[in-house]
Request: fold
Amino acid sequence: MQVDTTRKILVAYFSHSGNTREFADHIRRGVGGDAFEIEAKAPYPHDYDAVVKQARQELNSGYKPELKTKIENIKSYDLVFIGYPNWWGTVPGPVKTFLSLYDLSGKTIVPFCTHAGSGLGRSVTDISKLCPKSIVLNGAAFWGRDAKVAQNKVSEWLQKITITK
Reply:
């Protein structure tokens, strides 16, 4: 199936270790569109235990970190892929900030996450709450360890949801 070329596509993602970035690259190669990396202004620690602790504190407090960059033309997109690592069963703070900053009303949102065993968790529900006037698809969860060799899995998923070149 072909991508509807009248739709403008954005692949926005937050990646701490690089795995989600790999999947975002696979998706963008499959559907075209523009890529946008969601980055917190204050970088997260590289140490695993430290980032886990910080992510838990942010989740518990509802903290939404300031972003390093903004996207100027969000209104021009019809289809928005949102990628993230699953942290504590949901989207990380920078993704919550991104989804809260922009009016995505009427847009189709396609979540995708990387994980180490927890799948999508409650992230799709949480995205739906942050974007109540958007169409939020079920999305996909990919094992983070498969990032470098996941092109076939991404292609199969995109074909299944009928979004492919």
Remarks:
- The mean pLDDT is 92.
- The chain is about 35% helix and 20% strand.
- Residues 42 and 145 are 26 Å apart (CA to CA).
- The chain has one domain: 9-160.
